[in-house]
């Protein structure tokens, strides 16, 4: 790895960690900027380095560093929201791969971010449903999991995808892509 790659990966590890604690209340929900920074990791660092940066962040949390929104430690695997963290790693990889698959126009970057959002939803909602019903014994129907974890989150997450695409294109013009 080059020094620039190491520095930018470290920067995104820090941004994702800080993003977990930046809370934006909207109605009865609270949103964090973690999703935005994991998208940008894939867009700006590419598939491999984006996934490495987000993966190191998740590993840091699992070894006990309190970088997750609700703390950290190996027991976090039992939390219903752990699937989102796994989804963030896959999202960074997929987003980076799709963006680098051709000329990075705003439409291509937005499409890659939306595909990444779908991956996060797939991992996050699936794990949430399974963990709620079989690990923490807080039964929830699949429909309710889809409603609360997916449908109600689509608009704010779409806005974050728009922001990531805009920021990503601006950063490319500024020469900040790897």
UniProtKB/TrEMBL annotation:
The keyword Membrane applies. The chain crosses the membrane at residues 30-47, 54-76, 82-102, 109-130, 142-169. Signal peptide: none annotated. InterPro entries: BioY. GO terms for cellular component: plasma membrane. It is found in: Cell membrane. GO terms for molecular function: biotin transmembrane transporter activity. Pfam families: BioY. It is a multi-pass membrane protein. Keywords: Cell membrane, Membrane, Transmembrane, Transmembrane helix, Transport. Belongs to the BioY family. This is Biotin transporter.
């Amino acid at each position: 790895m080059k020094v620039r790659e190491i520095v930018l990966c470290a920067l995104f590890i820090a941004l994702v960690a800080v993003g977990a604690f930046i809370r934006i209340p909207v109605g009865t929900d609270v949103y964090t900027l973690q999703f935005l920074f994991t998208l940008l990791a894939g867009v700006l660092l590419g598939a491999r380095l984006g996934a490495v940066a987000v993966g190191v962040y998740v590993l840091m949390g699992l070894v006990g560093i309190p970088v997750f929104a609700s703390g950290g430690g190996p027991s976090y695997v039992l939390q219903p929201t752990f699937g989102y963290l796994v989804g963030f790693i896959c999202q960074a990889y997929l987003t980076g791969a799709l963006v680098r698959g051709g000329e990075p126009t705003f439409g291509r970057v937005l499409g890659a971010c939306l595909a990444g959002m779908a991956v996060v939803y797939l991992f996050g909602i699936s794990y949430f449903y399974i963990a709620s019903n079989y690990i923490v014994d807080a039964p929830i129907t699949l429909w309710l999991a889809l409603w609360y974890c997916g449908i109600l989150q689509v608009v704010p997450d779409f806005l974050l995808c728009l922001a990531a695409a805009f920021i990503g294109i601006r950063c490319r013009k500024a020469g900040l892509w790897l």
